[in-house]
Amino acid sequence: MDPINEVNKTLDATNATVSKYTDMAITYASEYGLKIVAALLIFIIGKWAVKKLTALTKSVMEKANVDKTLVEFAESLVYFILLMVVILAALNTLGINTTSFIAIFGAAGLAIGLALQGSLANVGAAVLIIIFRPFKVGDFIEAGGATGTVEDVNLFSTIIAPLDNRTIIVPNAKIVGGNITNYSMKENRRVDHVFGIGYDDDLKLAKDTLMEMMVNDERVLQDPEPFVAVSELGDSSVNFTTRAWVKNADYWDVYFEQIEKVKLMFDEKGISIPYPQMDVHMDKPEN
Predict the structure, then answer these.
(1) What is the pLDDT of residues 265-283, one digit of tens each?
(2) Is the model more confident about 35 or about 262?
(3) What is the dihedral of CA 107, 108, 113, 115, to 10 degrees?
(4) Distance between CA atoms of 278 and 287, rounded to whole angstroms?
């Protein structure tokens, strides 16, 4: 057997195999290469277009003075939906049957939804908050066991900052499922107090003093007019109820200052403020 012939046969077989796979590679490259390039271009250009459209949507809503919470939610939703459309278009260009993907995503979404019912309840509550707008970012509210200023509303929770500058994260479902008190929704707010005087004090003088305290405060609105009346004859005091309407921004300043002013004015005019007392009687032991 001629060794040279054997080597030549081996080389011919190798060349034939290489040629075969080269032809296959050229065939697949010519068939799928353009599809891959087209899919990549669709994804890259589509993602760029999605960002531009999302930014445009946000800009239009901000110029229309739409609530900040709604703007952020709509921005996230628009971006997610448009990006999914771009991804499906890229996959379709590759020849992949996107219908089966949609079915798979639907089944996966159902399974995830059942596993994350609590989280999805928070998402649903976020949608309700955004649609019905019981409050907005910057409002002072009482909801979900927390009281403070709303800093942010996202898909899962509402961020509330109390007066002492803490941060409370409340699940949206807990907020929607209970009472919501919005102290910022109305332009004006009423300051209510109860002040007591002794039974031996001058009733008319005390009433005039309380009215004077409110009328002389420029922050107290005169329409509706301030109100003072005897509300209770208590066990150890005659109690007055005062009501004064103020701008929402002035509420806490007026609330605390009125307490201080009443004490100082009552002291100046000799009007007493009763406090609970206890008389203790001690029997002398018999010798």
Answers:
(1) 999 999 999 877 665 667 7
(2) 262
(3) 120
(4) 28
**Domains along the chain?**
12-112 (1.10.287.1260), 135-182 (2.30.30.60), 188-268 (3.30.70.100)
What is the biggest distance separating any 2 CA atoms in the chain, rounded to whole angstroms?
Answer: 146
Rounded Cα–Cα distance for residues 136 and 126 (Å) = 12
Q: Residues 41-66: pLDDT tens digits?
A: 888 888 898 888 888 888 887 787 76
Cα separation, 142 vs 240, whole angstroms: 28
Separation CA 260–CA 253 (nearest Å): 11
DSSP 166-195: --EEEEHHHHHTS-EEESSSSSEEEEEEEE
For residue 224, whether the previous peptide bond is cis, meaning omega lies within 30 degrees of 0, is yes
Percent of the chain residues topping a pLDDT of 70: 74
- What is the reported pLDDT for 63? 81
Compute φ and ψ for 83, nearest 5 degrees.
Answer: -65, -40
3-state class of 157 per DSSP? strand
Measured distance CA(128)–CA(273) in Å, rounded = 49
Kindly give, in sequence order, each residue whose CB lies less than 8 Å from that of residue 285, ignoring residues fewer than 6 positions away.
Answer: none
Q: From CA 43, how far away is CA 90, in angstroms rounded? A: 6
More confident residue, 11 or 178: 178
Q: What is the pLDDT of the chain when averaged over all its residues?
A: 82
